[in-house]
Structure to design on (311 residues):
């Protein structure tokens, strides 16, 4: 098949590379290069880097709804999208012979939207998966072609789950394309009564909510790890947290209090008498560090039993 591939982050790269094993990718559409303020340079998306490595033509419209002539100039059988990052107009979706399909990191109709993997972890789901579906004007609402399930382990964070689902999606894509060619697709409509949404993360989502029990805090921290990272504020310092465990300890104190300082962790009181242990963190303008190093360094001046988070 002649395929247009649309994607942007690392999640999409294994899917593009798998398609290239059997099919001709006539165009790669990805988001415009983003300015990296730390490096002071424009950075291409992972998908663009992959496309250039394979000498593929790259198209980067600021707004695809307005700038799409390049797409209609192509002789194309199918459009495949994977975390592209823009709403694609209906006239583009219906342009190819076999229409357009999307590789989505959730078990639709659950978690439609831009942050399905992060939200599944944050919400404490025990499993997720990949759905390949036809694309429609309404986001993530198309008929389901194929879906496969993957467990979410306590050892998973946002990054590990992204990688696992990306590989799963890449394993699914070629058989789906083959079924399309052979006319064997029996797509299933989504049950609208089971729809849930996964909107993009906001700054409010990043602030660790110690009012929740420790298990929910643990889920929030790993769902935000590594990007953008959950955070709390103490002594006007915004401290990002990247790793934690649910403590077996209990407390009867106010929520959001430092209730334990140990050699390799410090403990914060959470809802329902539970305790979260902080294992890895990052201070402003510093590299990530183990809690052990923080406790033995700057933490000596910051951490104290009974101190309230946010003060």
């Amino acid at each position: 098949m002649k395929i247009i591939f649309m994607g942007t982050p690392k999640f999409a790269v294994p899917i593009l590379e798998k398609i290239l094993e059997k099919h001709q990718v006539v165009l790669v559409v990805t988001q415009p290069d983003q300015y990296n303020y730390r490096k002071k340079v424009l950075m291409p998306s992972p998908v663009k880097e992959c496309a250039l490595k394979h000498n593929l033509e790259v198209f980067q419209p600021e707004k695809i709804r307005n700038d799409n002539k390049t797409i209609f100039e192509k002789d194309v059988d199918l459009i495949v999208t994977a975390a592209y990052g823009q709403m694609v107009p209906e006239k583009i979706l219906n342009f190819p012979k076999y229409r357009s399909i999307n590789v989505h990191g959730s078990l639709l109709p659950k978690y439609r939207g831009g942050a399905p993997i992060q939200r599944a972890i944050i919400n404490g789901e025990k499993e997720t998966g990949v759905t390949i579906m036809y694309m429609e004007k309404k986001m993530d609402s198309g008929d389901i072609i194929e879906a496969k399930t993957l467990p979410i382990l306590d050892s998973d964070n946002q990054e590990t789950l992204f990688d696992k689902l990306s590989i799963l999606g890449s394993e699914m894509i070629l058989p789906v394309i083959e079924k399309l060619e052979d006319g064997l697709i029996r797509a299933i409509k989504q049950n609208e009564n089971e729809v849930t949404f996964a909107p993009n993360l906001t700054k409010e989502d990043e602030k660790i909510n110690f009012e929740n029990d420790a298990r929910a805090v643990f889920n929030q921290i790993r769902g935000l790890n590594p990007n953008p990272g959950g955070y709390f504020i103490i002594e006007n310092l915004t401290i990002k947290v990247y790793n934690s465990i649910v403590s077996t300890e209990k407390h009867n104190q106010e929520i959001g209090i430092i209730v334990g300082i140990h050699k390799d962790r410090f403990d914060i009181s959470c809802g329902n008498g539970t305790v979260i242990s902080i294992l890895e963190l990052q201070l402003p303008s510093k590299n990530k560090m183990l809690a052990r190093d923080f406790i033995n360094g700057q933490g000596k001046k910051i951490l104290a039993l009974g101190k309230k988070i946010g003060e």
